[in-house]
Amino acid sequence: MSLQAVLRAGRAVRGRLPGLSGNARAVHGSSLRSSGSRSLLVAVGAAVTAGLVAGYKHLQRAEMASLDPGQELEKRLAGFMAPPVTDPEQLRRHSGDMKSRMELLIMDTQADVCRALERADGGAAFTVDRWQRTEGGGGVSCVLQDGNVFEKAGVNVSVVHGYLSEESIQQMRSRGKNLKTKDGKLPFCAMGVSSVIHPKNPHVPTIHFNYRYFEIEEADGNKQWWFGGGTDLTPTYLNQEDVVHFHQTLKEACDQHSPKFYPKFKKW
């Protein structure tokens, strides 16, 4: 357990109230008052940190190599919250494709974050809903609510595909994209993992993240793709140590690739 997490827990239990953040969300009426408040708050901090670290470690592999020949995909699938949207056999056949690698990555991330939050809560478990999209694709929605620590937490994956509308194609072309369509159609695939986590205790900030991938395939078979996303804290009571810890975690992840990334992405 980090010293920062312990300090945050102790301060919250003692009831010290730093100044309100200018963009803070509404204060929840409930807070943790039992003798176990300290350990619960430490657990919340650990879960949020674990979620960030898990998510970023997986996202650091967005450029990852395809599955090693000796790796058993079944073991990886068994760790997911639900079966992936894409048929596992198709993922296996196209293991070198970026969209296959990304789908496995976001399913891994979802499972890691959900299990970290369940451990921190110590009571409630995630309800899992695997859904399908009529136009193509689907997703896995995981929701935990009315727990010991969390009022509500959602960790969701979506993987959708189809054809871009003519309006969307024109918008992309207006931004300088020279796109080759076939019969006016442009296939696309979009996927991502997102989460919003609301602790019961107003001294613990809400956290949000979403990481996504978008791919189009032109008439000549050429593929163009983009990554996007972000993460943020929304405190009720602003705690500078939370802010420092949050940004330090992100900086450490970015620095593993380039020291220029963190200041660039923070400003962006």
UniProtKB/TrEMBL annotation:
Gene3D superfamilies: Coproporphyrinogen III oxidase, aerobic (3.40.1500.10). The keyword rRNA-binding does not apply. SUPFAM superfamilies: Coproporphyrinogen III oxidase (SSF102886). GO terms for cellular component: cytoplasm. InterPro entries: Coprogen_oxidase_aer, Coprogen_oxidase_aer_sf. Its EC number is 1.3.3.3. It comes from the Eukaryota. GO terms for biological process: protoporphyrinogen IX biosynthetic process. The keyword S-adenosyl-L-methionine does not apply. Pathway: Porphyrin-containing compound metabolism; protoporphyrin-IX biosynthesis; protoporphyrinogen-IX from coproporphyrinogen-III (O2 route): step 1/1. Keywords: Oxidoreductase, Porphyrin biosynthesis. GO terms for molecular function: coproporphyrinogen oxidase activity. Homodimer. Belongs to the aerobic coproporphyrinogen-III oxidase family. This is coproporphyrinogen oxidase.
